[in-house]
Amino acid sequence: MTTHADAPETYNPVTAVAVASMHLMADGSREEFGAIFAPDAYNRESDAEPPDTRGRGPAAFFATSLWLREAFSDLAWQIHDIAHDGDLVAIHATMSGHQTGPFVRYRPDGTMQASFPPTGRRFAVTQSHWFRIKDGKVTEHWANRDDLGMGIQLGWGPPAA
Predict the structure, then answer these.
(1) Which of 58, 84, 117, 157 might form a disulfide with 33, Cβ 3.0–4.6 angstroms?
(2) Backbone angles phi, psi at 112, to 5 degrees
(3) What are 84's strand-pairing partners?
(4) What is the pLDDT of residue 12?
(5) Which distant-in-sequence residues (6+ apart) come within 8 Å of 6 by Cβ?
(6) Is residue 100 a contact partner of residue 120, using CB atoms and an 8 Å limit?
(7) 7 backbone φψ class: left, alpha, beta (φ>0; ψ -120 to 50)
(8) Contact by Cβ (8 Å): 113, 105
(9) Whole-prediction pTM value?
(10) Tens-digit pLDDT profile for residues 101-118
């Protein structure tokens, strides 16, 4: 296993693909997604996302980015640490942004579970993202996110008593 914290974005080609895939979420074009995601790439997180994110490949991942961009402007990921072993890459990062649109969460059946109207507030929360890389492209992604922390920072809950 290799771990790296100094300039992790440029450490090696395997980790660079994983990092590039995260940064594309903020502002990448559909064509750029095609260069990073395999035709059968799968996002394990898509069951809480809009139905058009539930397929495989670059189009599904691009749909995830559009969903995030609709809710958050100034979207960015700061990479803190990367670990990888063979085709598996783990990234510890902070996601930040500004909620300027509604954030909608979906049920596994594709129906809307909740919609959080824009608050105009900023947030920054830590996450870990996991990737499988094959032939220089992402084939699988899953994440551990601090959605509660994000919601608190954005004021989605009732005020504390």
Answers:
(1) 58
(2) -70, 130
(3) 2, 89
(4) 87
(5) none
(6) yes
(7) left
(8) yes
(9) 0.91
(10) 999 999 999 999 999 999
